[in-house]
Design the sequence.
């Protein structure tokens, strides 16, 4: 397992959940691509790597749940309540995100895959996932509202 590719996969998963599909509905479906070339044979994951991989997958599921909750909150008609609910959701998940970021750093450093300095940008990116997801959801929720007055004229 490659740590940084797993971290990147988690971040991509969190940012490309179905919660963003509403903002992407008009985009054409991508053309089918040929199957990727098989990866060169890698060493089997150690038990620690397998455990971390499972933890990363679980974190991805948590981020999908968070994004879905944020999407539902943003869709409320009462925007004041929507903002309060989004604040609460972000606050609820931030400790889990911070803990996962610490787990990433601990695992990577202890396994000799990276130094804390090398990991700093990835750790900041992980810690910023809730704010980034919320920003995208806020932007998607504001886009139809901004377009509505233009079509009413």
Sequence:
């Amino acid at each position: 397992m490659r740590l940084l590719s797993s971290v990147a996969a988690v971040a991509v998963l969190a940012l490309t959940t179905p919660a963003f599909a509403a903002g992407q509905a008009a985009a054409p479906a991508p053309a089918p691509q040929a199957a990727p070339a098989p990866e060169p044979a890698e060493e089997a994951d150690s038990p620690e790597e397998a455990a971390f991989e499972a933890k990363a997958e679980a974190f991805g599921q948590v981020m999908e749940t968070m994004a879905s909750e944020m999407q539902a909150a943003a869709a409320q008609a009462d925007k004041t309540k929507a903002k309060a609910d989004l604040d609460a959701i972000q606050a609820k998940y931030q400790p889990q995100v911070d803990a996962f970021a610490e787990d990433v750093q601990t695992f990577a450093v202890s396994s000799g895959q990276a130094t804390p300095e090398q990991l700093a940008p990835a750790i900041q990116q992980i810690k910023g996932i809730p704010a980034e997801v919320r920003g995208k959801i806020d932007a998607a929720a504001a886009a139809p509202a901004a377009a509505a007055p233009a079509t009413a004229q």
Notes: The radius of gyration is 19 Å. The CA atoms of residues 45 and 51 lie 9 Å apart. The longest helix spans residues 79-110.
